[in-house]
Specification:
With 202 residues, this protein is α/β, with parallel strands linked by helices. It has one domain: 2-Layer Sandwich (Nucleotidyltransferase, domain 5). It contains seven helices and five strands; from the N terminus they run H-E-E-H-E-H-H-E-E-H-H-H. A five-stranded mixed sheet has the order 3-2-1-4-5, with helices on both faces. Helix 2 crosses helix 5 and helix 3 crosses helix 4. It is globular and about 50 Å long. The N and C termini lie far apart (46 Å). The C terminus is likely disordered.
């Protein structure tokens, strides 16, 4: 079990000392379409303007994306929708964490949130993505990678508007599913509530 006091000593009190650990965050845990994307980042120099990706504008995230890649050792891992349907979301998260650990090896790890998903040797911290530079950087890499992919899916499946909602269960997205059915990138195992007046069409 990871020691919470040690976590605070290693990371919270040393947010600028990023040279000894890998920050981990993900994008796409909740959407009903598209991949789950994880990123692990070990920054090698300080970057201005890092924050939780959700608190940055798209323009800010895009501007930081290449800078992070140029200023770090990083690893991005994706689990596609069909595999999420097969193994489940928790196992997909666990697999991603293990792949990141296999890539970076024997260093410290800090994962945003509370749960370790059964992966040993992970420190966790709530809101690490806005407190700790390496995790903020991982948050940005994961979100930009996923958002770009969803924009491309929007070109392949224009009826669904993936470029707008990025696969989340918006009203427009649910209406599109009710009208056109699932695409190969939908997570069919995720329970959704379709618009009642269009259920007969699905």
């Amino acid at each position: 079990m990871v020691n919470k006091k040690l976590t605070k000593q290693l990371f919270e009190a040393n947010t600028n000392d990023y040279s000894h650990f890998c920050g981990i965050d993900e994008a796409g845990r909740g959407p009903i379409a598209g991949p789950l994307v994880f990123a692990g980042v070990l920054l090698q120099s300080e970057i201005e303007g890092l924050n939780d990706s959700k608190k940055l504008s798209e323009k800010q995230r895009e501007a930081l994306f290449d800078t992070i890649k140029e200023s770090s050792k990083y690893f991005i891992y994706k689990v596609e929708a069909q595999k999420i349907d097969t193994i489940g979301l928790s196992k997909a998260i666990q697999e991603s964490l293990l792949e990141i650990k296999a890539y970076f090896g024997a260093i410290e790890y800090l994962f945003d949130g509370k749960a370790t998903f059964g992966v040993s040797g992970l420190h966790t911290m709530v809101q690490a993505d806005c407190k700790v530079a390496n995790v903020s950087a991982a948050s940005i890499l994961a979100k930009v990678t996923r958002d770009r992919e969803m924009v491309e899916f929007g070109k392949i499946y224009p009826e669904y508007g993936f470029e707008k909602h990025k696969g989340y269960g918006t009203k427009a997205h649910l209406e599109a599913i009710a009208k056109y059915g699932y695409t190969p990138i939908h997570r069919k195992s995720f329970k959704i509530k379709l618009p009642t007046e269009q259920k007969a069409l699905f």
